[in-house]
């Protein structure tokens, strides 16, 4: 991990700097109470609490809060991989979600596709090069059950 990646990793895992960054970039993440619990080049884990801000009238976590936590898990991992390696743009180009059961407890989202992201970024050698990568994000309740699974496609362009 390069020095800039270490700085970003520390900033995103540290609550005060995470809150400051998200307030400027993604305030809904702060409203829902999402936090990054683990971030390295291989994986990212986010936690979405079950509270009044993230629930719907049916006493389960609102699907958009779960989608936001899943996107953050994959997006933070993507951002970590492009940090310090030149100028890139990144954008979600496809988002698929499958909901398996009611999420009525804190949910942990996990993206374990760091190697896949790294290989995709490595293929962008020249300005104007583009690539996409689809990463899996799984979810887990404290009892081990999975309320949802996600497939998020990120598009990258080297500037």
From TrEMBL:
<keyword id="KW-0812">Transmembrane</keyword>
<dbReference type="InterPro" id="IPR027961">
    <property type="entry name" value="DUF4442"/>
</dbReference>
<keyword id="KW-0472">Membrane</keyword>
<protein>
    <submittedName>
        <fullName>DUF4442 domain-containing protein</fullName>
    </submittedName>
</protein>
<feature type="transmembrane region" description="Helical">
    <location>
        <begin position="61"/>
        <end position="82"/>
    </location>
</feature>
<dbReference type="InterPro" id="IPR029069">
    <property type="entry name" value="HotDog_dom_sf"/>
</dbReference>
<keyword id="KW-1133">Transmembrane helix</keyword>
<dbReference type="Pfam" id="PF14539">
    <property type="entry name" value="DUF4442"/>
</dbReference>
């Amino acid at each position: 991990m390069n020095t800039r990646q270490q700085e970003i990793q520390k900033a995103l895992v540290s609550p005060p700097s995470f809150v400051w960054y998200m307030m400027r970039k993604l305030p809904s993440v702060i409203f829902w109470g999402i936090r990054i619990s683990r971030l390295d080049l291989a994986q990212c884990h986010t936690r979405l609490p079950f509270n009044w801000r993230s629930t719907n009238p049916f006493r389960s976590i609102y699907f958009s809060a779960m989608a936001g936590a899943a996107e953050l898990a994959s997006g933070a991992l993507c951002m970590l991989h492009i940090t310090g390696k030149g100028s890139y743009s990144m954008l979600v180009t496809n988002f698929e979600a499958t909901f398996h059961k009611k999420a009525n407890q804190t949910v942990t989202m996990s993206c374990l596709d760091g190697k896949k992201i790294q290989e995709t970024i490595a293929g962008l050698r020249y300005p104007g090069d583009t690539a996409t990568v689809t990463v899996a994000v799984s979810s887990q309740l404290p009892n081990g059950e999975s309320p949802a699974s996600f497939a998020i496609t990120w598009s990258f362009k080297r500037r």
